[in-house]
Amino acid sequence: MYQNIKQKTDTRTTISIHLAKTMEMLSMSADEVREQVESELSINPALERIDERICPTCKRPLPQQGICQFCGVPKSDSDHENIVFVSPREDFYSGKYSSYSNSYMDEPDVDSAQKEDLPTYVLRQIGPDLLEDQKKIAAYLLTGLDEDGFLTTSVHEIANYYHVLPSKIEEVIKLIQHADPAGVGSRNPQEALLVQIQHLSSIVNIPSGTKELVEESYDLLMHGKYREISKKHALSVKQVQNIEKFIRENLNPFPGRAFWGENIFPDDRDLDTFHQPDILIYYLNDDPKNQLVVEIIMPITGFLQVNPIFKTELRNAPELKAEEWKNDIERASLLVKCINQRNNTMVRLMQILVTLQSDYIRHGDMSIKPITRAQVAKELDVHESTISRAVSNKTVMLPNKKVIPLASFFDRSLNVRTIIKDLVKEEKKPLTDAKIVDILSGMGFDIARRTVAKYRAMEGILPAHMRNVINMR
């Protein structure tokens, strides 16, 4: 009976370790998986990499160039389903990773591979100051920034995800906020301005009362209510105007849109640029009428296996080495299984995402559907946290070569924000938030005024009265 209980306990422990490792690997980007594999190969003699061109999905031999001729093509002439498969990494680096997408081969986006994106730029600055357990948190926060450089996930949600106190998340956020561009990683424009004021206070003379005005009268300041502010803070109207001028000329409420690092010229900026995407989406034969092809980039070359010779030698291992060798084999086997599980989960996830968001992929932001992680989790019969991990730290290159976070597929505000942006672009007279609410209502969108104000701010659009002032200049 004791033996049976012990076996059950050992089995549960093994399953728990396997699950934890799979979930950890699922949340990693392709580059992070590659680094982990390279590290394990360097220390574990039981893990072996076979440098043969084998398809990660079906295990068939690959041609010298291009994709798998079984996984990367329709199953028949009448098959119009989207094609989703795992692609070997060396094809991606060589620029030959799609025999069906000539645009990727003929027009490689050189800048995409060379320019440094904002998350990487910030992480490189704060990296030396991060403790080991803070690195994953920092990467999670940075890869979730929106185009304005703001956090998109609540501190409590991230704390629950990593099973740490919210204060631990705040520590990392503070490090991020004081990197260049100052204020990145803030939750809103007001917080970004306060961070920048603190950052500049030791460098330049800041008008007296600037911090207090931003902290206590931000909305009044944004609406140009100088007289109300002057009464509230016992300042002259001229002093308030000087503070507003200082903010306008020296601070940026949207730090992600500032010029940072080597991106000092507007023409050189491309905040949608990442080093290499984790997933490629394009049209079969480059024809927009055809189905979508999805390549999930395999983070390693060749394929991994447990060294068969090492397994055989375990039977004859010296007593002092037997336990160590056994652990090496178990660790190698676990890594191989987890990578396979990661690939399977990513394939299933992308199959449903490209089906649900086909219009978004083909036609742009206006066509995005409001889907949730919970909805996709139910469809795939997995826990919602599995979808969250699969989505985190991943980027996708769309058919138009725009590289976006995979999380954008779940951005329910994207189409409304695009409409607001277009309305403001075409306006003859500045539209108030209330007027935009009315227009959206006529289009079938039930959106509150404060939500319109939030979406407008996310797009870097000033309030109507401030747009009016700018137009009069």
Automatic annotation (TrEMBL):
One of its GO terms (cellular component) is DNA-directed RNA polymerase complex. InterPro entries: Cro/C1-type_HTH, RNA_pol_sigma_54, RNA_pol_sigma_54_core-bd, RNA_pol_sigma_54_DNA-bd, RpoN_core-bd_sf. Residues 371-417 form the HTH cro/C1-type domain. GO terms for biological process: DNA-templated transcription initiation. One of its GO terms (molecular function) is sigma factor activity. Keywords: DNA-binding, DNA-directed RNA polymerase, Nucleotidyltransferase, Sigma factor, Transcription, Transcription regulation, Transferase. It comes from the Bacteria. It holds the Pfam family Sigma54_DBD. Belongs to the sigma-54 factor family. This is RNA polymerase, sigma 54 subunit, RpoN/SigL. It comes from Flexilinea flocculi.
